[in-house]
Design brief:
By secondary structure, the chain is an alpha/beta fold. It has 13 helices and 15 strands. The protein is globular and about 60 Å long. Bound molecules: 2-acetamido-2-deoxy-beta-D-glucopyranose (NAG) (3 copies) and zinc ion.
Length: 404
């Protein structure tokens, strides 16, 4: 260990272009996607990355797997010219995918971030923040999954999620008391600087008027409104509210084609989180709880057949009864989406190109020069067998290779 550190220092001092990385993940304390990083930070981030040339690699370009070629990692980005590379690698015809984007997670520690990264999740959305500090404190770890985060969940007093918010925080001001309370709530949450707003739709819960008002005020505040909806009635309300994304799928009865048509017409996106729906359906249910996984799976098939865009999200968490492992679950989610009727290609796009497009991340989601070097190298072709995404040989986040 001391020797390695010593060697790293010597290399860094004597050959500044031959860069060595320590094993840890320095917390740089910057919020890359919002603030402007200082020069000092950029310099620090730049010191730890060799220029890498990967030969004999088959790139998944978002549509198909291309014949073997050379891919270059240059600093934080995918480069074009292998000249000057200090690290050379023969990929032996392995397939290179864009790093996965998990559109629904709840990381609570650096360990969770490490698990996500290890399994190829290079971007994650955290869907519930209960204090202004909780979520930003997990941002900016060099070489680990890049995390974006929600507001506190907007829930009604007396609803199940409202009770959860109270249990977590003891703070009744986090609840939304009605349509005349949405301006106050949005204003308070804007001061937490969330990347997007989270709204809970359930019965009993927020009224349709209150939901509509939250969505419209979220948009006025320049952010997306993302809604939790886990049964048929909630999907109907979510669609009516014009929320940008509907997370979860019904565990009572499947949506129907006319609902899917309405969602399509409003340009809405669905994040089914089949991993957690399946886990919930397998729990021993309390009386009155619903657990019909067939309805969840069937809803995915219908949304997909009707052309509603679907994104991969797992609800990875270690807090609720349905524990979902970080990172590993992304691979099961892809399998579940395929079992629900999506093609392997659509499942892969749901974890890469489409979330980048619909979350508005122009710098990633595709293996192309100039994009972030968020990459997964896997043995085998996932267009032929979706399970091979598990055969991970290497992961890079922002040009830094992940190693445990
Ligand atoms: C909230 O806490 C109470 C008391 O511990 C518990 O009985 C209840 O199940 C919790 N509710 C939720 C939704 O977490
Ligand atoms: C908001 O509306 C509720 C009824 O829905 C009412 O009880 C409350 O007093 C109103 N609050 C304000 C600040 O107007
Ligand atoms: C489960 O969902 C399927 C699909 O919507 C439906 O046909 C079935 O009746 C549901 N089962 C129960 C017990 O509600
Ligand atoms: Zn969740």
């Amino acid at each position: 260990m001391y020797f390695r550190l010593f060697l790293a220092n010597v290399l860094a001092l004597s050959f500044p272009s031959v860069q060595a990385c320590g094993g840890g993940h320095d917390h740089l304390g910057l919020d890359e996607h919002r603030g402007t990083p200082s020069l000092g930070t950029l310099a620090l981030r730049g010191t730890c990355r060799p220029k890498v040339a990967i030969y004999n690699v088959r790139v998944f370009d978002g549509e198909k797997v291309l014949p073997p070629s050379t891919v270059v990692i240059d600093g934080h980005l995918i480069g074009a010219d292998p000249a000057g590379a200090t690290q050379h690698m023969d990929a032996e015809n392995a397939v290179l995918l864009p790093g996965f984007i998990d559109s629904h997670t709840h990381p609570g520690s650096v360990t969770d971030l490490e698990s996500l990264t290890k399994y190829g999740v290079t971007t994650a959305y955290q869907l519930a923040c209960f204090t202004p500090q909780q979520c930003p404190s997990l941002q900016g770890y060099d070489g680990l999954v890049d995390m974006f985060y929600a507001s506190a969940p907007a829930a009604a007093p007396g609803s199940q999620h409202g009770q959860m918010v109270l249990n977590q925080t003891g703070n009744a001001d986090l609840l939304v008391r009605g349509v005349n309370d949405t301006a106050r709530w949005i204003e308070e949450q804007v001061s937490w600087e969330p990347d997007f707003f989270k709204i809970i739709i359930q019965t009993p819960g927020l009224s349709q008027d209150t939901l509509n008002s939250l969505v419209s005020k979220a948009h006025t505040a320049g952010r997306k409104a993302i809604s939790h909806a886990a049964d048929f009635a909630s999907h109907r309300q979510a669609i009516l509210s014009s929320t940008d994304q509907i997370h979860h799928t019904p565990l009572d009865v499947a949506i129907d084609e006319s609902l899917a048509q309405d969602a399509l017409a409003r340009g809405q996106i669905v994040v089914p989180t089949l991993s957690v729906m399946k886990a919930f359906s397998e729990l021993e249910l309390r009386p009155g709880r619903i657990g019909n996984y067939t309805a969840a799976r069937e809803s995915v098939r219908i949304y997909n057949d009707m052309g509603v865009p679907i994104l991969a999200g797992t609800d990875a968490n270690n807090e609720i009864a349905a524990v979902i492992p970080f990172g590993e679950s992304m691979h099961s989610e892809l399998q579940l989406l395929v079992e629900a009727g999506m093609s392997n290609l659509d499942a892969l796009r749901a974890a890469t190109f489409l979330p980048a497009l619909y979350w508005g991340l122009e710098d990633r989601g595709v293996v192309e020069p100039g994009k972030r070097a968020d990459l997964i190298l896997v043995d085998g072709d996932p267009l032929l067998d979706i399970k091979v995404t598990r055969n991970i040989k290497k992961v890079w986040v922002g040009g830094r290779e992940f190693s445990t």
